[in-house]
């Protein structure tokens, strides 16, 4: 029987996933800055403190001091003992403080212990630029984490994927870095009315089929690529939109199959262009699909500058529809 | 310095012999590790516990092994040995062999025996202190009465993440005991050159955490203090900070060949008079619990046992190159190839 679909925002889909998993498993708890009484800076955890701590009298929604290394480490220790913490980073930029705990501890524990210890941890929060938060609050961290074996790194673009993958992340025994994007929170999508709906890691989606060019991206850039595809259609160009979704593990098969069909690829990512994850995707295509390509693989990334405050300058930094179009027309010449 | 205890002998002869055996076992095991290191059988960094034996032995006797949690930094051979872990698996791990606790993926700094409650084995100074609090967090969350012992060095007591952890341990009443092993040196930097306040137990004070400085060289006193503190934490479900005064007779690590750069021979000789093993031997003899002959027999027995452990570890095969991918993830294959 097909599940009934409900339309909701990306933010509400994430909240629903958290609530369902909190209800399903007493070992699941949420920890982070201002996530309880204040209900989260982006309101993802709205209503949770009231429901679990006040009404049910449980200790499940835990406000922390503003100390990312400390509370991330405590969550890792709790996960080592079998609990399933969901750590919210107020923004993924702040997870930089907790890199030692995430990279040097969480990602290594299962390996260093020879499989004795599991770390069923989810670190989630908004990554990428919001609106005029300037240089220290606008980092795209997913590419940094995707460099590190031992982690699962997800950057869903749709409400459905966010819902299914977050539930899968909470149930999974590996440490997962789950990147949301502030620009996606209000976007809407349909999610199944099924509390056991989960999605597998390492699975990319084709959001629009096409035959002329592959537009490859993740998180908010997938939505940008859908707009680009519409504009290209006006010119009679049939673009395929590949939503990478999962950076680690990476679904190269779906990406390669798309490129083998279209013979052209543009990789779009919000992170700094230099050394960003889009470069990894481009080089994979170069290595595996060289004979299928009719043109070089092109990357469109964020400008290689710290994120400025001015809205004019900020918009200049992030890839826009016209930037992607310009690179495509250059390619098609 | 902690005051020298003059205590009544309340331990049974069997208990005293156990402490003696455990300390000697650690000492001989670590000496053998040093030999193995010099033979090239151990690579990387290795930090032995020689001189500090009374600390691990006294605290281990105060907990419920296999129920309570124990976590420490990279000077981590001693705890598993006396917690009942398989010593061959410990030494095999130190040698990077297949039969090691982590099948050769951890090494000397990363020994774990989770079945016995030993959670390692960590290489980043101070980095494991929130993990220790996290273990205690899990106990509190599940309403169990486990306590967590989190050993750290005097060097780690300066780490920012340790202060963050102390705050949350106090804020949430976590049943964790931070045992600052003050062996007077953060690697090669003497206490007064690395800590503005050298009374390290006071790290707990700003957070309202009960804290004290205790002796770490007299195993009987260590055990008494440990039992009192463990019982208090289990009963009251609150954290505790203990600064335990000991001294490492060896260098920081096996690669530390220039101890004279940071301390004198005279100082070392002076401190060797505090040797916890010699000290217990004196008590055993004075109180007619054990004569020198018996001690020598025990030493011989333990040395033989350590020799057997060594032989078994050396006989363990190296891991197969294909094992490099094992345990990167649970239930998931990592991508393979260069």
Description:
The complex is a heterodimer of chains A (333) and B (338). Chain A has 333 residues and is α/β, with parallel strands linked by helices. Chain A is 38% helix and 20% strand. Chain A folds into two domains: 5-192, Thiamin diphosphate (ThDP)-binding fold, Pyr/PP domains (Rossmann fold, 3-Layer(aba) Sandwich), CATH 3.40.50.970; 205-332, Rossmann fold (3-Layer(aba) Sandwich), CATH 3.40.50.920. Chain A has a seven-stranded mixed β-sheet, sandwiched between helices. In chain A, α2 (48-55) links the parallel β2 and β3 (61-63). The model of chain A has no long low-confidence stretch (mean pLDDT 97). Chain B has 338 residues and is α/β, with parallel strands linked by helices. Chain B has a single domain (13-316), classed as Thiamin diphosphate (ThDP)-binding fold, Pyr/PP domains (Rossmann fold, 3-Layer(aba) Sandwich). In chain B, β6 (210-215), α8 (219-236) and β7 (240-245) form a beta-alpha-beta unit. Chains A and B meet through α3 and α4 of A and α5 and α6 of B.
Topology:
The complex is a heterodimer of chains A (333) and B (338).
Chain A: E1 5-9, H1 10-24, E2 28-32, H2 48-55, E3 61-63, H3 68-80, E4 84-88, H4 99-112, E5 122-126, H5 142-146, E6 152-154, H6 159-171, E7 176-180, E8 188-192, E9 205-208, E10 213-217, H7 220-234, E11 239-243, E12 246-248, H8 252-262, E13 265-272, H9 277-288, E14 298-302, H10 311-317, H11 321-332
Parallel strand pairs in A: 2-3, 2-4, 4-5, 5-7, 6-7, 10-11, 10-13, 13-14
Antiparallel strand pairs in A: 1-8, 6-12, 9-11
Helix pairs in contact in A: 1-6, 3-4, 7-11, 8-9
Chain B: H1 13-38, H2 53-60, E1 69-71, H3 78-82, H4 87-94, H5 129-141, E2 148-153, H6 160-171, E3 176-182, E4 185-186, E5 189-190, H7 191-194, E6 210-215, H8 219-236, E7 240-245, H9 265-272, H10 276-286, H11 292-315
Parallel strand pairs in B: 1-2, 2-3, 3-7, 6-7
Antiparallel strand pairs in B: 4-5
Helix pairs in contact in B: 1-2, 1-10, 1-11, 2-8, 4-11, 5-6
